[in-house]
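Hey, resending since the last one bounced:
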Amino acid sequence: MNRKKFITTSALAAISISACGNIKKIDENSFNSNCATTNDILGPFYRPNAPKRQDLTTNNIAGSKIDLKGIVYGSDCKTPLKNALIEIWQCDVEGNYDNTSQEFKLRGSWNTNENGEYSFKTILPGKYLNGKLYRPAHIHFRVTEQNSKELISQIYFKNDPNIQEDPWASDPKAELRILPITLEDTKGNLAVQFDIYLSNKN
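The structure tokens again:
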């Protein structure tokens, strides 16, 4: 997809993508707890049926590797949810999404374990032009769980200079989704922690 069409396409995608079934815009006012993770736009690059895998760095893909991990909680803000499906997708370091290949590069899905935990090994994404401005680096999330409302969101990274002018990343509702990249151990491995709080369907 031509990234010059991103603004128009993403505006439509934020409302719905009919080819993907039941993906719809979630009412921000419907959350019933103060810990619920906020929504973000779906964007035009979602692909259903991403493979079940935790390591997205196969085939010597370029980029700084990170461990992306967290816990999915229910609407009471404290109960971990097992078997929640986490789907993630992102661009490569050149700002390109794999929209067509059967490799589903930098796309994956995984279910949380008994303790509500998930983890992926991926890379820090690059950036691409959105009109005349670059979108800040980001990773997309879609989270589904049988008793919870579907969450479509994105994470960003602290000190990214493109956040301030981006209409989605600069929204106050994105504040808790702008995350630090930390040194996880003495070997210089990088990690990003993103805990997710879902709201009940009813």
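Confidence is low (pLDDT under 50) at residues 2-32.

Sorry for the duplicate.
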